[in-house]
Specification:
OB fold (Dihydrolipoamide Acetyltransferase, E2P); 2 helices; NA-bd_OB-fold
Length: 130
């Protein structure tokens, strides 16, 4: 699963993650010294383990740092009654299209005449042979 960290405590290696399936938040906790240094807005991938009502994030890997740093603020504001919220869209610029080779037109009429001539010649050969 892919998710975005919406809260983290770097000193305790803990985080809360908003999941791509838009289901319940996932809780991440580890005692490993090799754990990634998570910050709000980091994009991560992980496996989900359900423990009763709680979702745990396991085998977490940092994909990209601070891709959505304002997400936790946005989600908090959405929960407040009477609050109008607009979330800035991420600007994506598509890479330039690959350079294509030169297009060579086929001479349709000339090609069709040759094919018809060939077919007629084959039919004559078959008739003469029989």
């Amino acid at each position: 699963m892919i998710g975005v960290v919406v809260w983290s405590d770097r000193s305790k290696n803990r985080a809360v993650i908003w999941c791509e399936d838009q289901g319940d938040l996932a809780f991440y906790r580890t005692d490993s010294q090799d754990a990634p240094d998570l910050r709000d807005g980091d994009c991560v991938t992980f496996k989900v383990e359900q423990d009763g009502e709680l979702r745990h994030a396991k085998d977490l890997t940092l994909l990209e740092e601070e891709t959505h740093p304002a997400l936790s603020t946005y989600l908090a504001d959405v929960g407040r009654p009477g609050t109008a919220v607009s979330f800035p869209a991420t600007t994506y610029v598509a890479p330039p299209a690959p350079k294509m080779g030169e297009i060579v037109p086929f001479p349709h009429k000339a090609h069709a005449k040759k094919r018809n001539t060939a077919r007629a010649g084959t039919v004559r050969s078959v008739i003469q042979a029989s």
